[in-house]
Amino acid sequence: MRIGAIACALLAAIAATGCASSAHSDRMARLSAPIAPGSVAAGLRVDAATEDRILALAPERISREDVEQALALGPAPRIIAVQGSIPFVTMKPFAQFLIAMGYPESRIRNPRDGTYSYSGYSDSAELAGSVAWYYERDGMMPILIGHSRGGMVVIKVLHELAGEFGDKIAVWNPLTDEPENRIAIRDPITGAERPVVGLKVGYAAAIATGKLPRMLLGEWTMLPRLRKIPDTVEEFTGFFIEWDLIAGTLGGAEPYRPEGSAAVRNVTLPADYSHIAIPMTEHLALHDATRNWISNYVPGELPPAFPASLNVDATNIIHAAELWYSIKKHWCREAQGLIRAKRARVAAGG
Q: N vs C: which end of the chain shows fewer Cβ within 10 Å?
């Protein structure tokens, strides 16, 4: 009897495992299924009042209340955060900062493995193909942010999208981690076919990305391109740390510059910032003083620095505020674009 009971338990466990595996496969198949033109906007499930609040926002002036009462209740673009070459220095603390500030966690986690941080050795063509895949399914362009070598990967993705490493890029399915048998997507807004090469993201940033490591690691193809930002991004921010020994920015660094229409900003951080510790920003969202200062921050406007008199840990606050400002701005723009597409479709009787 005991042996029979054990056998039954084993059979039940095997059956349960098979069911779980089948359910996972079914979910993957559904998420990977072709997208019908207009279905992304049509499938947006946000109540009209929230849509109205989001549409009324000014992207350049998003307050803490705007995030909590409007943006966080609507759609959000995928954020792809790429870490550097040192495995134990990830973008997870930065991702946790964004989540604590109100960004939807599901839009930051890698949907395949649940991690917050992409490897600094990710293939740039695969990431470019993933950008296309996400846009086709979300109706919003992903945001790309990289630290150290991850910043180089982000910039390389932009050059990939510009066709500088080949005129064809396969659409890459991030759920299966495999290429799809196509080099174009169906635009979720217009329905037009669009090659991966030529797509433009809204915002990208590189943090403490130096030329010296590119030379030491023999990354020759990126040396002449590292400070050139192509037209495959609308806005880009490059962050430097004064006297950054790891990045090699000793006594100043060559600034990023646009090759065409991209809006490019260069931000120099104080020498007391740490190349290794710069992703450590989660603490800034956990104290009202730093959180409110970051929420109210607008580049180029006063105050230029967090007041030391408040006696709060403000480590890494400048680039955290800069990034949060730009992320909010493009989050708002992408959400507004998707809502307008939905309303235009409804008005047309679609």
A: N
